[in-house]
């Protein structure tokens, strides 16, 4: 319903902010990591939002970085992961860190987040790893069209698969991957993914 809200930051709380736009104050639920990235009260801000609609409530969740909203959507697709847990995970880890833990099946790192035990961490990995690599089909992977230099195609296809699963289109991820390799000197799959996500989050 709302892609983002631009306006004046008029309130910063422990887990929420209020952004005023055209005389309307939007109460946005978020986490401490997002709040720490925002400027001072009365500054202009842009918050990427997600409307969470339940039977008895509607909550507007928001993030400073677009990448975090994308990961939030992926996390809440896991059964048993609601808004609160997803926000806790994105408070503890950046989106690229969390994806890396899922791909490498590092449940111990994920379980460091407050309220996330080993069993839930393992469940997150089991459910998300398949989703993040599900796009690896011949029609989706077009590494031959990406200028990757000396980076092996299997590394690029892995990164590309994850970005497709996160909802990015071909034009978006192609430019981000190429920029990550050429301008950021990223060479490993982890580095390329991290830089590509950072680039996409600012577009």
Folded structure, characterized:
By secondary structure, the protein is α+β, with helices and mostly antiparallel strands. The protein has 3 domains: 4-63, Nucleic acid-binding proteins (OB fold (Dihydrolipoamide Acetyltransferase, E2P), Beta Barrel); 66-133, 5' to 3' exonuclease, C-terminal subdomain (DNA polymerase, domain 1, Orthogonal Bundle); 143-201, no CATH class. It is built from 9 helices and 5 strands. The chain has helices at residues 32-37, 66-75, 83-92, 95-103, 107-110, 118-133, 153-165, 170-183, 189-201, and strands at 4-12, 16-21, 24-29, 44-53, 58-63. Strands 3-2-1-4-5 form a 5-stranded antiparallel beta sheet, covered by helices on one side. The chain is globular, with a radius of gyration of 18 Å. It starts with a strand and ends with a helix.
CATH homologous superfamily assignment of the largest domain: 5' to 3' exonuclease, C-terminal subdomain
Strand order of the largest sheet: 3-2-1-4-5
CATH class of the largest domain: Mainly Alpha
CATH level-two architecture of the largest domain: Orthogonal Bundle
Measured by DSSP, the beta-strand proportion falls in: 15-25%
* Global mean pLDDT: 87
Write the layout of secondary structure elements.
Layout: E1 4-12, E2 16-21, E3 24-29, H1 32-37, E4 44-53, E5 58-63, H2 66-75, H3 83-92, H4 95-103, H5 107-110, H6 118-133, H7 153-165, H8 170-183, H9 189-201
Antiparallel strand pairs: 1-2, 1-4, 2-3, 4-5
Helix pairs in contact: 2-3, 4-9, 7-8, 7-9, 8-9
């Amino acid at each position: 319903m709302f892609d983002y809200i631009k306006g004046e930051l008029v309130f910063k709380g422990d887990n929420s902010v209020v952004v005023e736009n055209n005389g309307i104050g939007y109460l946005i639920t978020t986490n401490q990591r997002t709040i720490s990235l925002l400027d001072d009260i009365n500054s202009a801000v842009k918050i990427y939002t997600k409307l969470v609609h339940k039977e008895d409530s509607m909550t507007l969740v928001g993030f400073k970085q677009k990448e975090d909203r994308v990961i939030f959507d992926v996390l809440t697709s896991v059964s048993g992961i609601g808004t609160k847990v997803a926000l806790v995970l994105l408070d503890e880890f950046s989106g690229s860190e969390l994806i890396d833990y899922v791909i490498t099946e590092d449940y111990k790192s994920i379980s460091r987040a407050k309220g996330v035990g080993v069993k839930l961490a393992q469940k997150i990995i089991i459910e998300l790893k398949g989703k993040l690599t599900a796009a690896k089909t011949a029609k989706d992977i077009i590494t031959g069209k990406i200028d990757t230099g000396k980076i092996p195609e299997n590394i690029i296809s892995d990164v590309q698969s994850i970005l497709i699963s996160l909802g990015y289109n071909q034009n978006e991820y192609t430019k981000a991957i190429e920029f990550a390799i050429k301008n950021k000197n990223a060479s490993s799959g982890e580095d390329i993914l991290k830089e590509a996500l950072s680039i996409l989050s600012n577009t």
